[in-house]
Amino acid sequence: MKRLLIDGKLVGTDNTFDSINPANGEVVGAAVDATVEHAEAAIAAARKAFDTTDWATDHELRFRCLDQLHKALDEHREELRDLTVAEVGVPRALTYGPALDAPIDVLRYYTDLIRDYAWTKDLGEVEARGAKHHRWVEKEPVGVVAAITAYNYPNQLALAKLAPALAAGCTVILKGAPDTPLTTLFLGELIAEHTDIPPGVVNVLASPAPEVGEVLTAHRDVDMITFTGSTPVGRRIMEVASKTVKKVFLELGGKSAMIVLDDADFDTAAMMAAFTICSHAGQGCAITSRLLVPREHHDEIVGKVAAMLGNVPWGDPTDPKNLMGPLISEKQRDKVDAIVQRAVEGGATLVTGGKRVDPGFFYEPTLLTDVASGDEIAQDEVFGPVLAVIPYEDEDDAVRIANDSIFGLSGAIVSRDNDRAIAVGRRIRTGTLSLNGGNYFAPDSPFGGYKQSGIGREMGVVGLEEFLEGKTMAVVVG
Length: 478
Ligand code: NAD
Fold this sequence. Notes:
The chain has 16 helices and 24 strands. The protein is of the alpha/beta class. Helix 2 packs across helix 7, helix 5 (about 100-115) runs parallel beside helix 6 and helix 10 (about 265-280) packs across helix 11. The strands form 7 sheets. It has a 7-stranded mixed β-sheet with strand order 14-17-18-13-12-20-21, with helices on both faces. It has a 6-stranded mixed β-sheet with strand order 9-8-7-10-11-23, sandwiched between helices. Strands 5-6-24 form a 3-stranded antiparallel β-sheet, with no helix packed on it. The radius of gyration is 23 Å and the shape is globular. The chain has helices at about 35-50, 60-75, 75-90, 90-95, 100-115, 155-170, 180-195, 210-220, 230-240, 265-280, 300-310, 330-345, 375-380, 395-405, 420-425, 460-465; strands spanning about 5, 10, 15-20, 25-30, 120-130, 130-140, 145-150, 170-175, 200-205, 225-230, 245-250, 255-260, 290-295, 350, 355, 360-365, 365-370, 385-390, 405-410, 410-415, 435, 450, 455, 470-475. It binds nicotinamide-adenine-dinucleotide.
């Protein structure tokens, strides 16, 4: 049984819920089910730690504690790798990147940034009322932060919040997703058992009950919410948080477009499109789930993508050769299947896929054509291995379709000409873009969305600054 972390103590109760391995439906383990009272105790502990300890002001204490956490994660890396694959169904291959190793690097990056960041910015002097005034800005932590995360990359989502929030001097209540509680509670155990992080500075909760998340967003002692999850829940969080005027940071959904320009190598483009949509079974916010192709090359490209989808290795996530594992739950599989069926009933052509595969919650790589930009399948986030192909007439039309979305999280452009790809990329309203396979994902690269994909940026220096206030001060010097 994995326990909660509240006020420096690991808390166990008889009230637990099971984490299910999505690859076979078996129970991975039990997590303590936090109540609203646990959430309130965690908030009180975080408030007290922020207001009464040196955490907010002592940079060296923070560096030492985060360095300890980094070491502990490094030492328990293989244990967490196995747990992550079992609980999330993410292919083992991806744990060497965004599912585990990359987030541990994110923690390292923010630990080092504590020493490198300019915490004070000098503004020089001004003359006013016949005197000289010296001004400067001191960067201070926002305060008590509630971090609420999604299920798909739990280590990345937790550490991309925890690391900069703690580096900034905030105290945190972290609540993991209901489908993946164990990986998040594992972090709490490491903090309690292997670091000197003072009691209350980090509290870790797990619960399937939305009320536990709502307490965090509503409570007056929480200064900021950092949330990663769906756009509908993000809207609700903003609404609830508005009553106490909290700072709200949101990483939300996406429906990103890959634009294949008419000069592209279509084999390369097809390979990129197929492998991207299958990565972690399409359960990635930044995945390109719309494929925009020149109308005159539509049939040729569709043929190549369909063939490539047949080559993507998928199945057992513990097998390191697989790129795609299962969907997280039967509920998620029902959602994915329902949207595919509605698309077909609405006139889309199912080129390949569209079937459930048991045991576990697998879903075949799926390709749909005869899709118009306004269709549900082209507008709504599916979060499954489902790629919708939309033809375009010319470059302007491709840009128009790519931007025809409430989302703006990511995207990709494929061309033989980097300059042309960059020029088209500048016209896309989105927070990240991969041009000809360029990799933007790294601890120092800001990540986040335009439009209803979110507010703010995670990672990079700006990811630290999201958790900082600036206090402008002035003194008369002559
Ligand atoms: P979700 O929105 O259903 O849940 C996310 C979290 O919110 C969970 O911890 C859940 O318990 C909690 N929650 C639910 N209702 C709440 C409420 N009323 N108040 C407070 N908390 C509440 O998302 P999910 O299904 O876990 O994850 C998939 C979604 O996450 C997709 O939309 C995906 O695009 C998005 N996502 C975005 C990013 C990004 O960086 N932009 C990264 C990963 C996932």
